Protein 1
Amino acid sequence: MAISIKVNGEEHAFDGDPTMPVLWYVRDILNLHGTKFGCGTGQCGACTVHVDGKAQRGCLLSMESVAGRDITTIEGLDPNGDHPVQKAWRVNNVPQCGYCQAGQIMNAASLLENNPKASSEEIEQQMTGNICRCGCYQRIQAAVEMAASEMEG
Amino acid sequence: MHSQIEQAIAAELYGEPVETEDSPQSSAIIGKLSRRKFLKISGGGAAMALAMQIVPGAAMAYDPYPTGAEGMPNGTVVDPHVFVEIAPDGTVTLTTHRSEMGTGAKTGVPMVLADEMEADWSRVVLRQAEGDEPKYGNQDTDGSRSLRHYLQPMRQMGASVRSMLEQAAAKQWGVEADQVIAENHEVHMKDGSKKIGYGDIAAEAMALEVPAFEELSFKTEDQFRYMGKGEVPMYDLHDITTGKARYGADITLDGMKFAAVARPPVVGARVESVDDSDAMKVPGVERIVNIDGSMPPAKFAPLGGVAVVASNTWAAIKGRDALKIQWSDSPHGEYNSKAYAEQMRATAKKPGKVMRKVGDPDAAFSNAARVFSQEYYQPHMQHAQMEPLVAVADFKDGKLNIWAPVQSPYGARTDTAAALGMDAADVTVEVSLLGGGFGRKSKCDYVIEAALVSKEIGAPVKLQWTREDDIRHGFYHTTSVEHLEAALDGDDKVIGWRHRSVSPTIFSTFVEDPLHTSGLEAGMGLVDTPIGVENLVVESGEAKSHTRIGWFRSVSNIPRAWGVQSFIAELAHDLGRDPKDMLIELIGPDRKIDPVAADMKELWNYGEPYEEFPNDTARLRGVIELAAEKAGWGKDLPEGEALGIAAHRSFVTYVATVVKVKVGADGSVAVPEVHMAVDCGFCVNPERVASQMEGAAVMGMTLAMHSNINYENGAVTNSNFHDYPVVRINSYPKDVHTHIVDHPFAVHATGVGEPGVPPVAPALANAIFAATGKRFRDMPFGENVG
């Protein structure tokens, strides 16, 4: 039986391998390429998506485990790409190569949606799940703190 | 042959004596050749070189200088028609021919052209060039060369287009060209009476003859709009934050298949038998394709193995994992990191091949009151760029089209053509963004794999490496033992210096069994040492390679800085001296080291003419003092805090690092502050220079604390980020301050992608020692801290 799933507000039915991770489903089947493959083992966070609003690792989530759930990828975070986290990323010139950034942004956005008053320590704790090999951490920290102050209003 | 190899060979060639009539004794070093000689040798192909022969006229705003650009395969191209298009609506499309892997080169290089042509950056569109060096000039994006080599060609093309636009406007208005001036996307009458947009005269302007270099006028530094400001963000910034930026794996073609490859665990092993029955049962798996491996030396050829072709990436990986393969033995099956380290240490204790000798070191060591000696180890390391290797290839009707994240698109094109027995004219390589490179994406084995599979299956294919593939089948940063000795007289004065390096060479990837570090690698902190001790010897010990060794960001500068800069701090401690003072004292008086007098016979100056890019110890001292001053060196620190310092010249850029560590009550060590002082000549984009220094601090800390590719029986035992960890946000250096030495344009701009890394690990180890008394001589030492 096909698996029903909502991605960025659109309903989809999937009748392929139910063990396929959401990462490969959004990339190869839906051609949503913003979600990146980094390690395949949940260690780097490049594949972070939101499942019912909460950050999850797309490489570890099988399609059967998300049947009926609501998935948001970086493409669906904000219609104009103007989520406070995205804006803060640009103000701080965060990226170098940029490959991990969608995952970083999705993780940060989820943290702040659920805890807009996140402290520096809470931000650091949450963002520890995401690797940036270029080493943009200091700007990531600054950008998430900036977005937090905007979202807190 | 790949341009990388040619570059390496060029390095070797430049190290060979070149007889010249006016300076025979200085013949060993290209930089010692007179400017006139350099021009003669570099040939007539370059407008820039020709320009050197002309006394700069009043129109000039700077004195052009030769760089190593013309010595690179396919040199530079300065024809604005190749790089600039102006649409009738005024949109300026600039071709960017360097790969973007995070350094900002894609934006920074054409930004220079836009500045010089007075284009409004908000109306500039960038087009990424396909791999075509005869058309664009050298595209091999490594060696921290992009701005070093292309700053002047970009200025020349920008000035050319600006002049053509002015001439076209003047003609239209029936006035002399000196009555008009181009400014911010418009040409004006100087008296303010008329103006016209670039788009409105583009067709006429671009039809004019491109002016000769000596007819051009260049902007003065106070007229720079973008250069030196750091206000132009990277071109893809918005797309990166919205997930629209396209990397290698984001290319999709109609009818495209997906592939993953099982490769031999040991370099040189071959497939003996394959059982693919389980693999073929995986839903989505369609075909199995054998890939032949190459005979050593490997060059950039695939390792060989078995590809699984499927309808999606997941099926390909799952199918690959289900293959049962019997691999043959390999001559490298007994390579074990622990045993090899011991072997290198034993070699390091014996005299090696002398690569440089000044004064009488033998006498200094035999007359010494005592000898202070230490050894420093560094294991193999892997790039672990965030984007695992991937390539899309489409072989059809005798033509091959490739889309891939490659640092050297033309190298990938020619190597792939050769591997498939094709003419390079029948191969195209389109370059996506690179999700990190660090040197790994200079080697195109993954591109060749995709091309071979596409040809075999007769369909386009996306060939995806997993993280495990990436870590286990790399071109690894070489391992090394650096052995240092200081001869001290009765007054504790350093009278002799010995640096012996034992390290398998990168050249083992290209030629059969070389046993010594190459001239290219020796020029990375070994023979070019700035240490000014009067009796000095530099040696190389034999080391045979048992794996694929390749370029890793900063290359051999990492072990050399690790050894030398740790040793100096140890010596300072032994003598009760301040490490910074000791470092400056050992470097000695300010001087541009005379490479002939200093016996730097095999000096590889990163391909640059030495006269123009000398080893200037005043600049090295300058960054040491700048970093020390900004970090508050010598001031009292709270209990548990301490500083460590290190400095290194690499890629003709000077960097000094001061690391502050803080020891917690539980013995844990944190890095609250790092100061990176960088002297890169004229600084084109201070904002990206800072980002490179911040990244170098993080990568340097990762290397120091964690990076250890381990071999057992010829196979890499690491597999993913749990056993090849990298620094995360919870342990990164918290506050990285970048201090850029301010220089005018006359001080030649140099690159910053690599030079930040080497001093970080020794500065960290020196700081930890200062705080805890614990000295680390083996990288990585993270498990032993705290």
Protein 2
Amino acid sequence: MKRFLIPLAAFFVLVIFLAIGLTRDPREVPSPLVGKPTPMFQLQQLANADKSFSPKDMQGKVWLLNVWSSWCVSCRAEHPLLVAFARQSNLPIVGLSYKEVRGDSEIDAGKLSPDDELKLTRRRASAWLAARGDPYAVVALDIDGRVGIDYGVYGVPETYVIDKAGVIRYKQIGPITPDALDKNILPLVKELEKS
Amino acid sequence: MINANRTITLIVALAFALCGAFAQAKEAAPLAADEAVEKRMVAISEELRCLVCQNESLSGSHAELAQDLRREIRKMISDGKTDTEILDFMVARYGDFVRYRPPVKPTTWLLWGGPFLLMAGGLAALIAFLRRRAKEDAAPVLSEEEHRRAAALLDQSNP
């Protein structure tokens, strides 16, 4: 009897490890950027073509950086939540429009001139926000996805919570769920706003 | 007749297959603008995981992000960055997870040492097992008492 107990115990330990493994999402790669200053950039704004946006503009405020694009299906799912949240909160949400044109597999962006791509980006992003509501304080245009790379974006939507000193405090990979908003983002924002 | 038909089908199929191969070869050509840069880019990106399709390396992935990152690596190579600098660039953005060979540090000790721990455990179990068996083998097959009983039984069964 005893000779079976050890393998049986080992088997259960293995089962426990595998069971824990099943509850974890392998797509969620912890970001090394949490706890680090936001990567700097200077990008054109969507609403105002002559103005640019830089994370420096947000110094002294707690804010969210939400990476989105109109071709991203999960962004569509996330958007109503952002719109509702923006209505009842004064936490600024900055949108980063990520590869709006060249990220869409239905468009052959290689054939477009940079100017045409910019125009198409503006048209598509504005139309999307007009149709679904605009939760953003400002939207910056990351046309070629270069800023996305600096932020370690690998699947839109992604959302960063950034504190008053410009340090990234949290990264939400994938759409913000009501659960993630209530349990992770809001308590953190509250705490950051106090300091 | 049937045979001839089959041969024709085969030849046509082969021709199509070859066409496909050539077409692909042609499409890949413009990538290799600078062969030395390309070689280094491939060597570096083979060490990196594509985050979109995690079981593919960055060099083999067709994901958009992988293409962007390969372009970024090419640019860094042309800018004269070293391989270490390029790897550091990726790790700073995506974490150690992007490397197929993560660095040895406290959080990865178990990852690197795990297999050896398992092997040590297996070896210990094997040695214990062999020792026990050697002891059992060395012991007399029958004790004196058992000998006597066996003899008694044999005597009984003989007519």
